[in-house]
């Protein structure tokens, strides 16, 4: 069988470096130009003072990733604090239930703090310290980035200031409590709609006044340069581990790798390990919300246009006035009208494809994984699971799908209990 031959040829190679074309560690297809561009996407911020701060962060980043002390420290924290490598799990009952391909999970939900975001937050706070900064500043919507950043800041003795809309503060109370307990200072933002967009503006305003002492720490693989590069670099540990583990477990590469896409950090982390493998299909799954035919979705890649948001170019959903649209998803971590510039480019170059799953499919997948495997996934992650369940049915039992289980669903249980009839 051809797959067996592929298997043996792959296992004799060095898995860690085989598909990495640059000593730098990221595949060339997602590396920026000197102008911070990924094809026509991404870009640098124009504001002169901020531009200077961004250059300082970029130079600092390029230095530390070659620094042995930094690499050793990052490795120590990944192993002894986060609990890496996260395992690969063969979901046998879920696979049998779908009746087609074998579904595997990369268990980022088992990381300390329960999701993949800790991977880049540790990197960002370590970088801030190396740059001599005493504080990290960020915005948060659902609070997931805020919690991961507050965790890393507590660990490293760095001050942490989180800007959050007043509407989100009410909605996401458990995460607000977590951040407070971890020692973060929460800045409530009440102007405008009091949600994520206003929180971003407010955080940037504060940062502008504290450029010497603080660093802005973004929550996904997006924003102006150098953030997409930094976040994807720190998340690439997912794909690097997954490729080796999957080969060890099955003797071949997966046929498809699948991840949900909000801003795109967990997806770029997984994809990055397989960008040198043309046989592996990369699929990002966006929230179709109440349906692609309605106004209530956040399917940026599927229905968006090329535009600009928060200082960078990407696919974006715009409203009638040409402003970033207010979008909807059952998963607040996917609720963003833009997407990372690397995904925008991968789509245009046909190196990855982007599908979507509705709120209803997401809830179904959430319950299926809970009941069939005893794993309660985050609602964000459940979008990727929903797609995998759909795709598996049309594949043969000797084919495989590797899904990034980006986070656990403890945060979502009350919401789901309200929506789902458990007696059925
Ligand atoms: C934040 C979050 C996401 C979405 O963010 P990406 O940057 O697109 O990965 C997905 N899953 C979980 C569990 C999250 O917390």
Structural class call reads: alpha/beta
Residue share in helices?
A: 40-55%
Which fold name corresponds to the CATH topology of the largest domain?
Rossmann fold
CATH class wording of the largest domain: Alpha Beta
- What ions, cofactors and ligands are bound? pyridoxal-5'-phosphate
Number of DSSP strands?
Answer: 14
Strand order of the largest sheet: 3-4-14-9-10-13
- Low-confidence stretches are 1-23
How many domain regions? 2
Q: How many strands, what sense, and barrel or not for the largest sheet?
A: 6 strands, mixed
Shape: globular
Distance between the termini: 43 Å
Proportion in β-strands: 15-25%
Radius of gyration in whole Å, from Cα? 20 Å
The CATH architecture category of the largest domain equals 3-Layer(aba) Sandwich
Note the total helix count: 17
Mean pLDDT: 93
Pfam families: PALP
Family: Belongs to the TrpB family.
Catalytic activity: (1S,2R)-1-C-(indol-3-yl)glycerol 3-phosphate + L-serine = D-glyceraldehyde 3-phosphate + L-tryptophan + H2O
Function: The beta subunit is responsible for the synthesis of L-tryptophan from indole and L-serine.
């Amino acid at each position: 069988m051809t797959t067996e031959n592929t298997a043996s040829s792959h296992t004799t190679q060095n898995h860690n470096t085989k598909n990495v074309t640059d000593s730098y560690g990221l595949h060339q297809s997602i590396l920026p130009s000197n102008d911070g561009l990924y094809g026509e996407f991404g870009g640098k911020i124009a504001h002169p003072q901020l531009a200077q701060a961004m250059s300082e962060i970029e130079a600092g980043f390029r230095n530390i990733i070659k620094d042995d002390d930094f690499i050793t420290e990052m490795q120590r924290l990944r192993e002894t604090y986060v609990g890496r490598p996260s395992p690969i799990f063969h979901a046998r009952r879920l696979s049998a239930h779908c009746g087609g391909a074998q579904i595997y999970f990369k268990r980022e939900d088992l990381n300390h703090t329960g999701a993949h975001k800790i991977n880049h937050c540790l990197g960002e706070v370590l970088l801030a310290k190396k740059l001599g900064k005493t504080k990290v500043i960020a915005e948060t919507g659902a609070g997931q980035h805020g919690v991961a950043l507050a965790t890393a800041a507590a660990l490293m003795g760095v001050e942490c200031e989180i800007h959050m809309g007043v509407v989100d503060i009410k909605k996401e109370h458990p995460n607000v409590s977590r951040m407070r307990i971890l020692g973060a200072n929460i800045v409530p933002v009440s102007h405008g709609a009091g949600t994520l967009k206003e929180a971003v503006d407010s955080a940037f305003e504060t940062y502008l006044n504290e450029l010497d002492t603080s660093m802005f720490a973004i929550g996904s693989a997006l924003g102006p340069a150098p953030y997409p590069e930094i976040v994807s670099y720190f998340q690439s540990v997912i794909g690097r581990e997954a490729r080796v583990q999957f080969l060890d477990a099955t003797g071949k590469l997966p046929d498809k790798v699948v991840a949900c896409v909000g801003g795109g950090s967990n997806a770029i982390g997984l994809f990055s390990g397989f960008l040198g493998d043309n046989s592996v299909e990369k699929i990002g799954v966006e929230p179709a919300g109440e349906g692609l035919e309605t106004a209530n979705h956040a399917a940026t890649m599927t229905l968006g246009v090329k535009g600009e948001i928060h200082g960078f170019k990407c696919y974006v959903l715009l409203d009638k006035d040409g402003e970033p649209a207010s979008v909807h998803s059952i998963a607040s971590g996917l609720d963003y009208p833009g997407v990372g510039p690397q995904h925008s480019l991968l789509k245009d170059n046909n190196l990855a494809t982007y599908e979507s799953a509705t709120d209803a499919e997401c809830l179904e997948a959430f319950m299926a994984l809970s009941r069939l495997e005893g794993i309660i996934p985050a609602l964000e992650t459940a979008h990727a699971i929903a797609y995998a369940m759909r795709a598996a049915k049309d594949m043969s039992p000797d084919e495989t799908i590797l899904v990034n289980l980006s986070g656990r669903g403890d945060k979502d249980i009350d919401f789901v209990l309200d929506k789902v009839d458990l007696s059925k």
